Every structure is written in C-alpha cells, then in structure tokens.
Fold:
Amino acid sequence: MHDWYRIFDQNLLVPPHTQRARQPLKESTAFQCVLKWLDGPLIKQGVLEALSEVGCHLRVSLFDVTYRHFFGRTWKSPARPLEPLCRQPPRIDFSEPFYFHTSLNHPNIVAVVEVVTEGRRRDGTLQALSCGFGILRIFSNNSESPTSAPQDKRLRLYHGSPRALLHPLLQDPIEQNKHMTLIENCSLQYTLKPHPLLEPVFHLLPENLLVSGLQQILGLLPARGESGDTLRKPRLQKSLTWYLDDLFFTMYPSLEKFEEELLELVISDHFREAGSPLDSGALEILERRLCVGVHNGLGFVQRPQVVVLVPELEVALTHSASFSRKVGASSKARSGNHTLVLRSRLQLPEMVCQPAFTIVFQLEYVFNSPSGADGNAASVTSLSNLACMHMVRWAVWTPVLEASSGRVTLPLQGGIQPNPSHCLVYKVPPASMSSEEVKQVESGTVQFQYSLSPEGHPDTPMEHTIRPKAEQRPSRKPLTSPSSLPAPPPRGLTTPQDSPVGPGLSLSQLAASPQSPAQRCSAEASSKPPGSPTLSLAPGEFPLEGRISHLEADLSQTALVPGTSTAEQLQELPFTPVHAPIIVGARTRSSGGKPSRASLALLRSAGFPDILDANKQPAEAVDPTDPVKFNPQKEESDCLQSNEIVLQFLAFSRVSQDDQAAPWPQTVYFTFQFYRFPPETTPRLQLVELEEAGKSSSASLPHLLVLIHKDGSFDAGSPGFQLKYLVGPGFLRPGEQRWFARYLAMQTLQIDIWDGDSLLLVGSAAVQMKHLLRQGRPAVQVSHELEVMATEHEQDTMVVSGDVTRFGCVKPINVHTVVKGQLHLTLANVGHLCERRVGSPSSLPPSRSRVVSNDGATGFSGGGLLTPGAPRLKNVVQAQKLADVDSELAALLFTPPWQGTRQPQGAGREGDAVRRRKLERMRAVRLRERGAEPGRCGPGVLAQQSMRTQHARDLQLIAAYRERTKAESIASALSMAITTRHTIRATLGAAEFFEFALRNPDNTQHTVTISIDSAELSLILDGHEWRYFKELAGLHTPLEEDMFHPRGSLAPQLFLRPREMVHIPFKFQTFSAGPRASAQASAELRLEKDTDAGSPCTSSTMPTKHAKVLFCAGNGKPLAVLCLTVELQPHVVDQVFRFYHPELTFLKKAIRLLPWHTLPGAPVGMPGEDPPVYVRCSDPNVICETQNMGPREPQDVFLKVASGPSPEIKDFFVTIYADRWLATPVQTWQVHLHSLQRVDVSCVTGQRTRLALVLRGMQTVRKVRAFSSHPQELTTDPKGVFVLSPHGVQDLHVGVRPRKAGSRFVHLNLVDVDAHQLVASWLVCLSCRPPLISKAFEITLPAGAGKGANKRITYTNPYPSPRAYRLHSDHPRLLQFKEDAFQVGGGETYTIGLRFASRQKAGEEEILIYINDHEDKNEETFCVKVIYQ
Structure:
C-alpha cells in the first residue's frame, strides 16, 4: 500500500482551466515527442565557474495560452553532463522520448520546454538555473494530417523563465510579442508525431500526464529488447477478477449520531454561505452511495462502479428472513444500528497482480438541496428538486498477491489529505467535537470478504461467517412466469453482468426525478392528489424518501440454465438469430399535418358537401395543430349526448416518384375500423384529376374521390365519399360515454388505402381523433392532409461479421418507408339531442367502485318461483301468465295432445273413433229435442266441452311441471338471495382489478373454496401483486400475506372466522381479440350489401362475457355467488405491422423497440438502463417473446407465426408491458400476416428472365387480369383481361427484367375484374446480380432546369451475321434513346443516340445502358457516370 501512496503523491495533476472543462468532450489523441539534441551556447561560462558537477536537463509542461494556465504535471528528463566541447556550436545529446494523450484539441494548447542547468555549490547544496524556454505547438491551425510522416523540427528558445507566460502583456501569438527575446544560435531539435499504439492503454494513463518510456507504468509488461521503452509498443498485463461480498460500513458511535452531526454541520455551512438560517427538516439524506474502483496510482483503471448502501435495519425489515439471518450473522459482533450494508456482490475484472494496484472505496452522501438562498419553502421550479453530493469517507486496499480469499477490515479516511477523486472530504472527528461520544471513536471502518473464485463465498473461518447450511449452497430454480413472483437471486452464482458500471450523477441528472411505470399507471388509474407518495416499485428498487433514482438494480442475477455447477454448463452468448431480421418499429402517430391554404382553396372549389350541426349551421373548424385540452367531466355533462361522427374522404394527392415506383392507381378503396363498429370497407372510388391541378405549381397532383356506381359509371359532379357513425344512448351501454370520450382522446385511426383494380396495398395513414372532442360545442370539424406511407423490404447480400458472437450472418431485410401520397380527409363530430331520456333505474351506469360487497344481496325480493331473476327495487310483483313467464312451460301448453303425448298407435285410433261416434250420437239427440235441423246448428257445445277438456289437461300439466321444477326453482330463488352482480369494462391486455368483500354469515368458522368458471378471471394469490394493484387503484383496504391456500390444479381455499369479512382480490384480463373481418375484403360486395353507404352505421361487434364465482363452505353449502358481466371495449392500437410471407411456412421476425423514453406513455427522465419488457400475444398459436440482452442494449420482440394457405390473412395483437404483473400495456401492436404463394427467381439486372405460373380454374367462368406491384420490372402474358375457364389449367407467363441489383419482393395478384375479388396471389422473391460492365463513360451536366444534352456512343457487332438489338436503361427518366431497337450487320459499327435529361439536385448518378439481343438477353452493359453541377 505504501507503493501506491508514493506513486499517487508523485503524480498529482493540475486540472485544465474550468472554461476548458465546460467545452464539449472530444476523442483523446496520443502523441510521442522525442527531444533529440540541443545546439548553441546556453549560458556564459563565467556563471558556471562557481558550480561543480554541472549538468543540463529539460522540463516540459502543458500550457493553455488562451487562459494563461499551466496544467498536467511537469516532466523532467535525465540530466546530461555539461562539459566544454571542442565543436562549435556546442551540442548536448538527449534523445529522450516522452508520451501523453489529450482531448484538448486546440491550437492554443502548447507544450513549454524549459532548459535547466544544475550544479552543486561549494557548500554541497544543489542550485538550478533556467537557461531559456521554447513553445512547442502541438496542434496547428492548418489542415495538416496528424498521420503524416514525422519530420525533425527546430524549436527556437527564448530568454527568461516560462513563468513569464503568465504575464498579461504576453498575448497570442506569443512568438511575435515584442517582450519575447530569442537566444541567438540556440535551438532544440525534436520530433512530434501521433502515437496510435498508446490508445489501448489509455485507461492506465490519465489524460494530460507526460510520462517517459523508461518510467514504470503499472499494468504494462516490461519492454522487449535493450531500449527499455515500454510505451513505444505497450503490452498489457493479464488481468484478474476479484469478487467482493458482505460489504459493511461501520460508523461510530452509531450511524444515527454520525448522520445527525453531519446534517448539523451541513446546515451550519449553508448558514455561513447564505447568511440565513436553514430549517433542520428542510435538509435530509436521500441516498448513501458507494463508489468502488481499481486505481493504479495514476488514476482509476475503469470508471468506478456506483452502488447504493442501506442501513442494516432497513435490510432486515424489507427482506426475507434468510437475508436477515445472513446480515445478522455477519454483524454479530456489532451492537446498535451503526452499519451500512451492500446487498449485492461486487465484481472487479480489471485487477492486475502488482503491489501498487489498489481498490478504492468512496462513501458519498446525497442530500436534497434547499430551493433558495434563504432556505424558505420549496419553489415551484425544478430547482427545488436539485440534490448535492458530498464525499464523507474513503479507503484504499491493496490485495495480498498470495491470498485467494479472506476477510479484510480497513479504516476509513477523511479530512484534507489528497484522495483519488481530488475533492473535498468530510473531516475526521476532531478532539474539539461537541459530542462526548464522538471524541472517543475513530473515523469508521469498512469490512468485506474477497475471493478470486466466482463460486460462492470464500472459505473463511467459522467465527467470521456463520450461515445456515441451506444457504451455503443455494438451489438454482428455473425462471418464473411474468405473473408470478421471481425467485430470489442466489448469492455466489453471478454472470459477467452482475456489477454494471453505475453512472456518476451530475446535478442535472439528480434533479430529474424519474417516474416508474407503476407510478404512471397509478396516476392514470386513480385520482390522487399531486405529490402523494407512491410505493409501487419496479423489480430491484426499494423505498427511499426523496426523488432520486436508485442505481443498484439487482446486481446478482439468476442464471438462465439450471444446474449444480457452472463448469458443466455452456454459457450462452448474446446472439441475434439470423432467421429473425430486425425491424425497427416506426411511429405512425405524426403521419399527417395541416393542409396548406392552396390545397384548401382548391378542394373548396370542388363542391364537397358542407357539414352542418343540428341547427343547420356550419360546424366549427378546428386547427389540427392546436393542442387539445380533454376534460372528461365536460364531455359527460354535455346536453348533446348523441354524437354523429362524420368521415369525409375528399381527395388523394400523388407525390413525385422515381422510375421504379408502382403506377398511380385509377381507383382506390379504404379499410379501417372505428370504435366497436364492424370493420369498414368502403366502395371503390374513382380518382378524378382536378382541372385546376394542371395550373398549380405544387409538386403533388390532387385527384378527387368519386363514388363508382354498380354499372361502373361515376358522377364527377358529386365528389367525395362520406361515412357517418351514430354514437348515442341507443348505441352505448350505460356508463360507456366516458369510455368513448377516452377512445377519441387517445386513439389513432389507422386507414389502409388499397388499389381498387389490383387489390394491392398502396399504403397506410394514421390520424389522431382527439380533435373530435366537442367539449360543449355543438359541432366540430377538422381537415387533415395525411401522408400515405408504404413499407418496402430489401435484402442485402451475405457478409461476414467480425464479431465472434455472430459467426457471420445474413444482414436483415432493410425496411424502407416511402411516402406514396397525401390523403385529404375531414373528420367531424355533430352533437344531437337524445330522442329519449334515460330515466329507468335499470339503465343506470354500473358502479365504478373497486370494492364489490355482498351485503346488499341478502334478502329475498319476493314473487313466485317461476318469476324472472332480474333484480327489483320493490317487493311487489304483478300477476303474469305462466306461459309468459316460463318459455319451457309455454311450449308444453301450446303443444297438441297427439304431439305432446305418445300412445300406442292402435289403441289411440280405436279410442278416438269410439269417442267421436258417441259424441255424434249425443249431438244428434240434443238437436232433435230442440227441434232444429242437424246441419244448421253451430259447434258451441262441442267447443265448450273441448275447452274444458283442454283446461283440465293444462292444469294437470302445470301441476306436474311445478312439482318437477319446484326443487330447482327454490334453489334458484335462494341462490338469488346470496348473488351479487357486478359489471366491469375491460380492454385487450389491460388488467381490471377489483375486490369482493366476502362476509361469513354464520357463527361458525368455514374453510371456503373459491371456484371460478372463466379462465380470464383469476384470484390474486401473490401478496406483492395484490399490493401493486391496490396502489394503482388507490385502495386502502386491508392486505394480508399468505391469505389463500393454493392446492395446485384444485380451487384455492380461504379460512373465515365467524362473522368475519375479508376482501378477496380478483383480476380480469383477456388477451383474446375475437374474430375479425379481413382487411382486404371485396369493395363490390360491400356496395351490394349496403347500398346507402352514407347512412349512419349502428351495428356493434364487441361481445359481452360472463363469469361466475362460487364461494362454498366445507360441506358444499354456498355462502355467496358473484356474477360478473364483462363489457369489452375497443383498445388503442399504437402501431400496425403488415407482413407478406410465403404460405405454409413460419414467419420469424424481430421487431426492435424504440428507445424507452420515446415510447408514448413511458416514464420521462428515467436514467440508467431501460426497464424489463414483457410481451403477450392475443393468438395462443403465435410464439411471442423478448430477451434482455444486457444493459444499454436494444430490446427486440421476437415473433414466430405459422402462415396459412394463400391468400389467407391472419390478424393478431401484441401487447407490451413494463411491469412484471402485466397491469397496463404501454404499447399495443396489430399484426397482419398475408400468406402468399412464393416464387423464387434468380436473374441478372437488365436481362429478362421468363417463367410460367400454373392457373387452375374455379367453379365458373371468370374474367381475370394479372397486376404487379412493379410493372416496369415484372410483366405478364396475357397482359390484359383474359378468361379463366372452369376447372381448366392455364399458364401465366411472367417476364422479369430488374433494374437494380439486390434481393427484394414483388407482389403479383390475379383479380376477378367483374367481382373485384382476389383469385390468387404470389410473392415473387427476386435475387438480382449485377451484369458485367464492358465500358464506362463520364459526362458533366448542369443541375437545375437545364435543357439536358445529346451524346453518342458506338457499338460494334461482334458476330459475323446481322443481329437485332434492344436498348434499355435503369434510369429511363434521366436517359432516353433515339431508337429503342436497332439492327446492325456482322462486324459493323452502329452509333447509338443518347438524350440525357437534366436533374434538379446536384450530385452524381451512375446510369447503366443494357444492350440486349432479340431474346432480351444481355450482350453488353455500358456505365455512364453523370455529374450534375
């Protein structure tokens, strides 16, 4: 340790000027300077006659000319004897190299070289004389390359001492100042050059330190050879990894008194500086931080690790009993609460076996800084959140080279002595300290265990480490699911990422108060007062007062692979699969903007219908760029409760595209889904160009959208297409109005634009609907100009990576986003009065309370056993017909006897015949007695008898039915008395939390079994999860640990005392999105189904789910029943991904998440690494997962989906969470997977490749046509419409002539032109290689609106016979041919005429000219490099 103190004291550096430190940091540059020889007389001989043993040496210091500031440390060369030389002029040979590196790349940073002679006086004392100095310029003002060959340079020397440079009269340039006097015929020969070989050892050499190659640098091997220059080609020593465990800081007399006195002294210092007293409660300790780093005497080898210390008492209260026993065993000899504990293991991989390599411990305290100078109440500005740090103690430990493990106790240091961080340290307890206890104690100690082995704790004596046997060899448990509590990490089994380097916090970083995702969810889920404390913590965090981010985040991670020994398991390296190309999630929330005034004027003159409010007045126009203030109470109190949402599709503008873009469609249609209405597919709309568009100077080409009729005609006089959605009390459920307002405020409407003829996707657009919130206004409308974005996939060629963890891989498919056009859309919300008031009690909205009680369910409401089970407010029941009450009984009563009863066929017929004969005889006798004729009397008597018989039969049937259903009806009526009904509204992926207050109605204790009939409704069995959801909901009901008795696959049980009431937590969470319609539906079928497309849509597709919870006692007796009704609400979709993939294969994609702080809804100002990410998928057959690749590494979401047969479309949703309990998703993605038939084509750029696709006929005759997404590169034969015969087989000939090399996808659709249905679809995968270029040319053209240029080139037919050739170009817009085809005789030369068009943008472009034969095979390729100036 003494070697370290010696080296540390000898190499203390003066820092650069403070103004230099505030400038942006640059990369440090290494230099080697060789001082060769000194020519000329230095000093008169008479001056040195009184000295003996005269020698000469050089001193070099760094100097800042701008601020007149010396910094770094002065380097001194070995002395050379100064003897009278015969040669003239005299020369002193030094040949001394020195090295340094600096990031202060500025011409005014110079090196000052001083020539010093020294000798001994007669009395033996040493005397040094300055003989002159020179200014060595390190950085020059010109653009000289630093890697140029070094040259010998002469440094001219000046009279005097370098201290003269501090004089204010010496201004830059110093060499030309009149006060500087040159020494005649005296100069220093030197060489200065960059030294890149020094860069690998920058961590061992501090910046601005001048060192000699002969100086011993700790961490470097000795130099090879006799030169001894270790820095000319430095070689690093092998490093070792040291592990530190059970680290404790002991403060005397106790931690409480030490910190109390520390706060008093800080408050006293503030009083002396600010001049005003500070309340003791205004200053508090926020964090206790420990900085641990390896120091080689010159500086820290790596940036010190920053971890958080906690008092031992807090560890014992907040952790498990095993950890408390562990801490207590380690601190058995101590008494009182005076210990700070580190809860994790430290790993130092940069140690080197040298005596001067030490480990430095620095204890820092973080305080909250008072807001103002007077220390009054906190200000509303961010200054009130600032924090300040003070170092209070530090210690140095040099490991024993022979020992591999042990335990160390070190004294802590403080006071004014120099320390490795070069900052002020809290003083040690003086003898005059006011406290009587502090006078008798030391500065404190730090103790820890060290080991060179990563496995477990070192083998130390038993009296120092006493632990239970179960903890000496911890069990490795597999990973748990996100919904369960993770197992505690085992101590002693660590990974290379156990001790991440913690950031050193600046004041600005400490002032930024992070907000955890749990706190953000709590702010959304409950209405808490601002500033109320939230105890929801992410994994690895613990509660501390203040607003400081914790830097210790679970430094000991659980291994991924279970095993008993780390030597038997292979360590998995970070590896991205080559089959999962990375796609960066693009943001679609800002894809539109405000239309220009020219566009508004042009569209206004087209004659679109006006949007009027209920009073026939134009709706108020809203600027889409204005911010929206959403007030839910204002929306709910609006008298116009009925909302008519209007969507007007006005026009579609085309942007300028390159030559390889798809042609502009003639017809389009749109697909989207609004709220919980069915997915909408608009009719086909014709694109009609405006007459005024040709006169406009705008780059976009607007086309009006006109509805196409069934016969294919359209009326250009009525442009636009309008859709209306009526959202009122007749559509919304009770209490759903606030959900609809929230939907408008948060949701982004995703609109897909399709080509109406080819059924190919043109692009997608997104529009925010927050401007549709009326906020008390009668009607609002907003006009948008949305960018229609299309995603193109291109794959690069095979490359070999230098990273050993990637093993060479295929570059992922590059995703390019192209703007296809602008969609002009108008959204409106018109308010209407409700036609009927909601007055019935049954239509009241459900309760929003999170606590559901069964107290109100007790008691019987009265009525018969067959009455409906609907809840009633009064115990009065009106008499009703039994047939109207029970449907089953009504069916039996209205069934004829011969249908309702079954008898033997013979007996039934015989009995009926005898009965009819007797009735006829009796009827005839009665008619004769009355004197009437048999044929004139009505059937009154027989009808009455038949009615009596039917009534008797009905009464018997009713009696039998009542007797049979009596037990069931009584049980149902009794069950209604203990049944509680509750309604919740849930969205996809979001957990709805509530508690059920269960009361034991008996005077005896029960063991209650809880049975749930729904898989989406679950009990919260984990206490941590229950606490997390209670904090989100803001509930203050009681919480119990280990409340339930889980029984594996059986229903959990709960113990209830007599008349006791407990709160049982439930969570409903659904990941099922339900069946959804295809987005690529036929536009013609939609038009036939709904002829009046502009009429308001009122249908709903969101289902309602039901769940039942039964609470039964041990004897099977039910105590309570909970009937839950779940009304599903539409969810917010943040991003939409659409993939095209070959049929019956697996799609494997990796979608890279955006940086965490840029995600909408993520916490703002969160320092350190991103929180862990959890994902779930709505389709259980889709594998969706994410992996933590380490700190500060991007996070990817991996998808593996099985595609179906072509042309099937699979839709599913992916929800992303930032909390392990999956409470609220921070992102929701919608993924569309289109299954297509794959065709692989290997071709050459510019040359046509032919293939044939087999078409099979349908049941009927169809008129079809083939469409390509790149018609310039892929053509079909037949080209137009052709007939596909039923059950026939026909070939579709495809020709591919790509214009660009590489791999990409081309879509090919076969469409029924009459029904506009997709018959077949192919995904053509092109693998194009470039041709061989035979000639190259170069021309220069002016950029801008020029006339272009005409050029000529010659081509000689190499064949002896005449040949016909065709000309093609990869840039037909920039190059046209005079003739596209020509014929030339054998061996003759033909002149090809070229016409080069101008280009607006300056730059270079390489244009390829393909010369193909009559079969369109490439003969030769010319390359013309065009330079546009």
In short: The radius of gyration is 44 Å. The CA atoms of residues 54 and 83 lie 8 Å apart. The longest strand covers residues 813-832. The chain is about 15% helix and 35% strand.
